[in-house]
Design goal:
The complex is a heterotetramer, with 2 copies of chain A (278 residues), 1 copy of chain B (234 residues) and 1 copy of chain C (263 residues). In chain A, 40% of the residues lie in helices and 22% in strands. Chain A has 278 residues and is an alpha/beta fold. Chain A folds into 2 domains: 4-89 and 160-242, Rossmann fold; 243-278, no CATH class. Chain B has 234 residues and is mainly alpha-helical. Chain B has a two-stranded antiparallel ribbon with strand order 1-2. In chain B, helix 1 (2-19) packs across helix 8, helix 2 crosses helix 5 and helix 6 (135-159) packs antiparallel against helix 7 (164-190). With 263 residues, chain C is mainly α. Chain C contains 10 helices and 3 strands, in the order H-H-H-H-H-E-E-E-H-H-H-H-H. Chain C has a 3-stranded antiparallel beta sheet. In chain C, helix 2 runs antiparallel to helix 6 (109-135), helix 2 (18-35) runs parallel beside helix 10 (237-259) and helix 8 crosses helix 9. The longest helix of chain C is centred in the last third of the chain and has 31 residues, at 188-218. The chains are: A alpha/beta (278), B mainly alpha (234), C mainly alpha (263). Chains A, D: It holds the Pfam family ABC_tran. Chains A, D: It is a peripheral membrane protein. Chains A, D: This is ABC transporter ATP-binding protein.
C-alpha cells in the first residue's frame, strides 16, 4: 500500500462571491515525492492549497494529513500549519517585515520554540536558500527572485513535513527558474514532501515524480509524468500543452528515428543519449 | 483694518513667492528642534492618553478579528504614500497628507491618532519632514485634532441631512484647516510676539500658513470627494 | 524619493549597535535644544556634519542637499518670529518697521538675535535626526523600541507600515506611470481626476493586500501577535567611550558658556 | 535604406538609488515589424521602454521617434505618448478604474476626443481584445488573463503607432499565452509596430520578425531569430536558453537525421515538415 501524506476527499468549495472553485476534488499526495499540480489559470490550484493547510474549510469533503482527518479547532489547525507550509505566489503579499531575519523568525517563533532554536533555524533556512548575504538588506530592496527565496526560507525555517509552492517559477528568467528547481530538489532530498503548482508543462515534466492535472475544480488526470503527458486528450481538455520533449520524442518515433517502447526522455540529456544509442 | 490686511498680505505674498512655490509642504509639520523643550514635552504628554486609548481600542478589535492588524498596517502605509504624492493646487503642486480625513471617517478618530503618530515618525525619519522632538505637537495637530474634527464634521453633516459629497468635502477640508490652526496655535504659544503677545503671534503664523493651506484644504477636500466617489463605485 | 532609507542600509556605520547610534543622536539633540546656546548649536552642526560625512561616509553632496530640505520651513518660521507686530509703535530696539493705522509691523534687534539662535538650534537638532536616520534602518529603530519596552502593538504596526510603505509606493508609482503615459496628467482637470482614481485604486489594493497578507501569515501560525527576533548586535566599549567623551565635552563647554567663562 | 520608427542612441540611465540600468544602449526598431526584446530579469528592458515613450529622460543619449529627436517639453512628450503606448508587466498594479469601460476610456478621454469618438474607440478596442462581455465588470474581479487583455485594450484605444508590451505572457497559461500572441499578430497586421519584451526564448523565436538581446543595460546582439538563436555564445552570456526548436534541430542535424543548411524551423509544423521531407 502506498503511503500518502496528504489526502483530499471530495473537496468542494465555493467563494462568497459564488465562484465554485473546487468540485468534489480528490487527490492523494505520496509521501516524500516531488509532486506537480498542473492546470491553467483559475483551475483551482491555489484554492486547493489553502485547504491543504486549513486556511479554508471545505464546504463538503475532508482533508487528511498523515491519514487523519483534519479538525478545524485552533490547536489542530496550528499543528497542521506547522507541518504543511505554503509559499504563496506573490512574495510581496507574504513578506510582512522589512528585515529578512525578522521575517524568517516569525514562523518558528509561532511554534513556541526557544529563542536559541529559532535563531538556529533561521540561519539554517538562510543557508539552504542561499540568502545569507541578504541578511542585512531590507526586503524592499530585493529583486523578485531574491524575495522568492526569502519566502521559501520563511517556510523552511518551520521545518514542515510538506512544502507547497504556488507557481514558484512564474516571472523568473530561465536561469533563476533553474536555480529554484534545484533548491526544491535539495529540499526534497532532505525528506520533505514538495508540492508545486505550475502551468509550465516542460518544468513539470522534467522535475516531478508524480503529476496531477487539475481543470475546473477537479482532478482530471494523474500519474507519472510520462504517462500523463502521453495522453493527448487529457492535455487538450486541461488547456495545457505537451512538453516539447514528449512532442519531439513522438515525432522521432513516428519517423522511425527512435524505437517505440523506449523510456520517454526526461530531459535534454536523456533525449540526446537515446538518439546516440540508436 | 484694510491697510493692515494689505501689509500682511504683501508680506505673506513675497514670502510665499520666495519660499513656497518651488518646494513642497515642509511648512506643514513643525520641524525638528523648533519647539523649546518644555513645549515639546507638554505636547507629548497631551498625546499619550490618545495613543493609549487608540491602542486599547485597536487591541480589543484585534482580539476578535486578528486581520485588523494587517488592515491598519496597510491603511497606515496607504496614508503615508498619499502624503508623499503631489496634489495639484492653485499655488502649484504640493505634497500633502491626504488620507487623514478619509481614515478618520473609516476607522474613527482614536485609531487615527495611533496611525497618525506612526506616519509622522516615518515622515520625520524617512523624509526629514517634522521631527522626533516635535512628534508630540505634530501628532496632536494631525493625529488628534484633525481626525476628531473630520469625524465630528462628517457625523454632524450627515445627521443634518447634508449630501454625502458635501459631508466628505467638509470633513476633509475642515479637518485640514483645523490641523493648521492648531499648528499655528502651537507655534504662537511657544513663540509669543515680544510686543504683541500670543495673539499677535497667532495672527502672524495663521497669515503665513493661510496662503498655502487654504487652497490646499480646498484641493484636498475635492480630492477626498473624488476618491470617495470612485470607492463607492468599486 | 526615499533615499535616506537607502543610505540607512548602505552607510559605513551600518553594523554599529543601533542603541549606540540612537543614544549619540538623542543625547546630542537634547543638549542642543536644552542648552539653547548658539555656540553649542553650531558645535552640534559641525559635529554631526563630521559624523555623517566622515565615519558614516554619506556623500557630502547628499548631506548638503538634505540639509537644504528643511530650509523653507525654517526660514518661514524664523522670519515670522523675527517680525513683530505691535500697536505701541516702533521704539528703541527696532531696526525697521512700517506703521499703518496704528499697527506697526517690523523687525527688532532682539527678534533677529532670537531668530538666529532658533535657526541654529533647529538646524543642529535636524543634523542629529539626520545622523540617526542616515545610519540606522527603521527596522533597527523599532528593535530599539522593543528593547525599551514600547507597547508591542505600536511596534508591530510601525513595522508593518514601514514594510508596506515601499510596496504601496511602488504600486502608486506604477499607476502614476501608466496614467501619465496615457495623458492622465495632461491638464489640471485630468490631473485631479487621475489622482482621485489613483488614490481610490491604491486604497482598494491596500484592502486586498491586507487580506492576502493575513492569509499568508495565518498559514504560518499567526493568531494575533507578530513575534519576531532581531539580529544580535555587539556592544562596543570603544563607541560608548567616544560618545561619553563627546557629550561630556559638549556639556562642559555649555556650562562654561553659561557661567560666562568663555564666549 | 531601412525605415526605423524608434531609435535609441547611446542611451544611458542611472536610477536615483545608483543602479545603472542602461549603459550606452543603441537600438533601431524597424517600422511595422514584430520586434522582441529578450533579456533576463534586470537586464534593463523595462527601463528602456520607459525611455521610448518619454516617461524617463536619459542621462545621456537620445531617443528618436520617426527620425526626429524626442524633445522633453510638455507638448512633444504628450505627442510621443499618444503614438507610443506601453502595456506594463503587472496588470494588477496598472488598472486603477472601477470598471473595464471606464478604464479603457481613460486614455482617449484624456486625448480630448469627442465622447462619440471615445465610445467608438473603446468598443473597437474591446472587440479587438475579445473582452466585450467584461464591459461592466469591476477590474479587480477579473482573472489575470482578463486583466492583461484590458491593459492591452487600454493602449489600443489610443490608437498608437507603436505598441510596446512588457512581458505579455508571464503568468499566462499556454492557452492564454497563445491567444495573446495571436492578438499581437492581428494588431501588427493592422499596421501597428509591435514590440514586446520577454525572457521566454521559445516565444520570441516563433513570434518575432526581429530580435534584440539585452544584457546588463546594453544590446549585445540583434538580428532575425534564426540568426540570433544560432549563436550559442550570445545566448549564454545573456543568461538565456536556446529555443527547443533550435536545440532539437541542431541535434537532428548532428545525428544526420536532417541535412545541414536547411532553413531553421520556426514552429512545430515546420520541424515536422522538415522531417517528413527527409
Amino acid at each position: 500500500m502506498a503511503d500518502y501524506i496528504l489526502e483530499a476527499n471530495n473537496l468542494s468549495y465555493t467563494y462568497p462571491d459564488g465562484t465554485q472553485a473546487l468540485k468534489e476534488l480528490c487527490l492523494k499526495i505520496p509521501r516524500g515525492q516531488k509532486t506537480a499540480i498542473l492546470g491553467s489559470n483559475g483551475a483551482g490550484k491555489s484554492t486547493l492549497f489553502l485547504h491543504l493547510n486549513g486556511i479554508l474549510k471545505p464546504k463538503s469533503g475532508t482533508v487528511k494529513f498523515n491519514g487523519k482527518d483534519v479538525a478545524y479547532g485552533r490547536k489542530s489547525l496550528l499543528e497542521l500549519r506547522k507541518n504543511v507550509g505554503i509559499v504563496f505566489q506573490d512574495p510581496d503579499s507574504q513578506l510582512f517585515s522589512a528585515s529578512v531575519y525578522q521575517e524568517i523568525s516569525f514562523g518558528p517563533l509561532n511554534l513556541g520554540l526557544a529563542e536559541k532554536t529559532v535563531r538556529g533555524r533561521v540561519e539554517q533556512a538562510m543557508t539552504a536558500t542561499g540568502i545569507n548575504e541578504l541578511k542585512d538588506k531590507p526586503t524592499h530592496m530585493l529583486s523578485y527572485g531574491q524575495k522568492k527565496r526569502v519566502t521559501i526560507a520563511d517556510i523552511l525555517a518551520m521545518e514542515p513535513q510538506v512544502l507547497i509552492c504556488d507557481e514558484p517559477t512564474a516571472w523568473l528568467d530561465p536561469k533563476h527558474a533553474k536555480q529554484t528547481l534545484q533548491l526544491f530538489d535539495e529540499i526534497s532530498q532532505n525528506g520533505t514532501t514538495v508540492i508545486l503548482s505550475t502551468h509550465d508543462v516542460d518544468l513539470a515534466y522534467s522535475w516531478a515524480d508524480y503529476v496531477f492535472i487539475v481543470s475546473d475544480g477537479r482532478v482530471i488526470g494523474e500519474g507519472t509524468p510520462d504517462k500523463v503527458f502521453s495522453d493527448d486528450n487529457l492535455i487538450r481538455i486541461a488547456d495545457l500543452e505537451k512538453p516539447w520533449l514528449v512532442d519531439v520524442y513522438d515525432l522521432l518515433v513516428k519517423k522511425g528515428f527512435l524505437a517505440v517502447n523506449t523510456d520517454l526522455p526526461r530531459n535534454k540529456e536523456d533525449l540526446y543519449n537515446l538518439m546516440l544509442k540508436k | 483694518m484694510k491697510t493692515r490686511k494689505m501689509v500682511a498680505l504683501t508680506f505673506v505674498y513675497i514670502l510665499s513667492v520666495m519660499l513656497l512655490i518651488p518646494q513642497n509642504a515642509y511648512a506643514m509639520h513643525i520641524m525638528e528642534g523648533f519647539l523649546p523643550m518644555n513645549w515639546a514635552g507638554i505636547w507629548f504628554a497631551l498625546i499619550i492618553p490618545f495613543i493609549f486609548l487608540g491602542l486599547r481600542s485597536i487591541q480589543k478589535t484585534i482580539n476578535i478579528n486578528p486581520s485588523l492588524k494587517m488592515l491598519l498596517g496597510l491603511a497606515g502605509a496607504f496614508a503615508f504614500v498619499l502624503s508623499s504624492l503631489k496634489i495639484p493646487s492653485v499655488t502649484g503642486s504640493c505634497s500633502h497628507p491626504t488620507g487623514v480625513g478619509l481614515g478618520a471617517i473609516m476607522f474613527g478618530p482614536m485609531t487615527m491618532s495611533v496611525l497618525g503618530c506612526i506616519i509622522l515618525i516615518f515622515q520625520a525619519v524617512l523624509l526629514a519632514h517634522g521631527g522626533i522632538t516635535t512628534l508630540g505637537a505634530n501628532t496632536f495637530s494631525m493625529g488628534v485634532v484633525g481626525p476628531i474634527v473630520s469625524y465630528a464634521v462628517f457625523r454632524i453633516a450627515r445627521k443634518s441631512g447634508a449630501p454625502l459629497g458635501w459631508s466628505v468635502f467638509l470633513a476633509a477640508a475642515l479637518g485640514d484647516l483645523l490641523t493648521y490652526l492648531t499648528t499655528s496655535l502651537q507655534l504662537a504659544l511657544a513663540f509669543p510676539d515680544p510686543s504683541g503677545g500670543i495673539l499677535a503671534s497667532l495672527i502672524k503664523f495663521m497669515g503665513v500658513f493661510a496662503v498655502t493651506q487654504v487652497p490646499l484644504a480646498i484641493s484636498e477636500g475635492i480630492l477626498t470627494v473624488v476618491v470617495f466617489n470612485v470607492l463607492m463605485n468599486y | 524619493m526615499l533615499n535616506i532609507d537607502g543610505f540607512a542600509y548602505t552607510n559605513s556605520l551600518r553594523q554599529v549597535h543601533p542603541l549606540e547610534k540612537a543614544a549619540f543622536a538623542f543625547i546630542t539633540m537634547f543638549m542642543c535644544i536644552g542648552f539653547s546656546l548658539p555656540v553649542i548649536s553650531g558645535l552640534v552642526i559641525v559635529l554631526m556634519a563630521f559624523a555623517i560625512v566622515g565615519p558614516a561616509r554619506i556623500p557630502i553632496k547628499v548631506y548638503f542637499r538634505l540639509m537644504s530640505l528643511p530650509f523653507s520651513f525654517l526660514l518661514i518660521g524664523v522670519v515670522t518670529i523675527a517680525v513683530s507686530i505691535t500697536t505701541k509703535g516702533s521704539g528703541a530696539g527696532w531696526l525697521a518697521g512700517i506703521t499703518i493705522s496704528g499697527i506697526t509691523v517690523g523687525i527688532t534687534y532682539s527678534g533677529i538675535i532670537y531668530a538666529i539662535g532658533l535657526f541654529l538650534k533647529s538646524l543642529g537638532a535636524v543634523s542629529c535626526l539626520y545622523f540617526l536616520s542616515l545610519t540606522t534602518p527603521a527596522v533597527e529603530m523599532t528593535a530599539v523600541m522593543r528593547k525599551l519596552k514600547f507597547p508591542s502593538l505600536f511596534i508591530e504596526l510601525t513595522d508593518l507600515i514601514y514594510r508596506f510603505i515601499f510596496v504601496m509606493l511602488a504600486t502608486a508609482e506604477e499607476i502614476h506611470t501608466s496614467q501619465s503615459s496615457r495623458w492622465g496628467y495632461a491638464s489640471m482637470k485630468n490631473s485631479m481626476k487621475s489622482l482621485g482614481q489613483l488614490t481610490a485604486a491604491l486604497f482598494v489594493k491596500a484592502l486586498h493586500r491586507s487580506q492576502t497578507l493575513y492569509t499568508a501569515l495565518s498559514s504560518r501560525g499567526y493568531t494575533g501577535q507578530l513575534n519576531v527576533l532581531t539580529p544580535e548586535y555587539t556592544v562596543s566599549v570603544n563607541n560608548i567611550i567616544i560618545i561619553a567623551v563627546i557629550e561630556s565635552a559638549l556639556t562642559i563647554t555649555a556650562i562654561l558658556l553659561e557661567m560666562g567663562y568663555i564666549g
